[in-house]
Amino acid sequence: MAYTSIFNIQELLEHILHFLAVDKSLYPTLFVCRLWYRCSTSILWKHVEPKGKVRKRQKPIYSSSITHHKISYYNSLSDKKIKNIVSSCPNIIHLNFKRSTGFFDKALILIAGTYSNLRYFNLCNYANINTIFSQKITDKVTETSICDIIRSCPRLQHLDFSYCEVTNEIIKKIACLCLNLKYLNLNECDNISKEAVNQLVSLNPNIYVENFKNIVQNLYTQLLMYSNN
Question: Domain containing 26: what range?
Fold first, then answer.
């Protein structure tokens, strides 16, 4: 019986290389041999991440094979461009819009209606960091569209809502509908009560909630310290 290395069996090799894609260590495998090159390129095309900040006139990448898409620091990510992404990339499960601006409720509702298998969604810092204290994103993305994402994507495991107008109602929706959620970032989400977060954790003990601060409690503590002085 002829000996065959497992690294020469395409199906097994692709499964192994997927783990390297997660750690962003896949590029060196392109130079091993032709088989590894073919397997690696097919995986890389499913994980699209523009290098550095996206320029204003640069267009997002569209491909039906893409499953992971990151568009960060892009100030012209309009509803139209997101519509093109949704129509051209139907298999997205990982979507990262960190610090990208220009889209509204309509775009998120479209995402919710298309990507029912979405597992990762990052809406972090949608508002401009320099104007975060003077203008929140309520005129851009509202509770309605965020709730649509939560309601339509039950397989979500990672959510980043940093600097978003997250409310207690949204936290309640997450607690009831996102039973697979493992990570939730609530940095600078000022409108959430400690009771709502406690209920979320009690219903989903495996979730890790990062950067939650009870603003009311913090203000009370500061006032108490000031009065004692």
Answer: 7-49
Bridge partner list, 48: 69
Neighbours of 49 (CB within 10 A): 13
What whole-number distance in Å separates Cα of residue 160 and Cα of residue 162?
6
Helix then strand then coil, % of the chain, to nearest 5: 45, 10, 45
Residue 120 forms beta bridges with which residues? 94, 158
Q: What does the angle CA 68 – CA 142 – CA 180 come to, to the nearest 5 degrees?
A: 45
Amino acid at residue number 95: L
My answer on whether 172 and 205 are in the same domain is yes
Same domain, 26 and 138: no
d(CA 169, CA 205): 19
Per-residue pLDDT of the chain (229 residues; tens, 9 = 90+): 344 555 566 677 766 666 666 556 666 777 778 777 777 666 665 555 554 455 555 555 556 678 888 888 888 888 998 998 898 888 899 999 988 888 999 999 999 999 999 999 999 865 443 444 434 443 478 889 999 999 999 999 999 999 888 999 999 999 999 999 999 999 888 889 989 999 999 999 999 998 777 544 444 444 455 555 5
Contact of 126 with 151, CB cutoff 8 Å? no
| CATH number for 108 | 3.80.10.10
Asked if residue 109 and residue 197 are part of one domain, the reply reads yes
Place of tokens 């097994």: 12
Sheet holding 208-210, edge to edge: 47-48, 68-70, 94-96, 120-122, 158-160, 183-185, 208-210
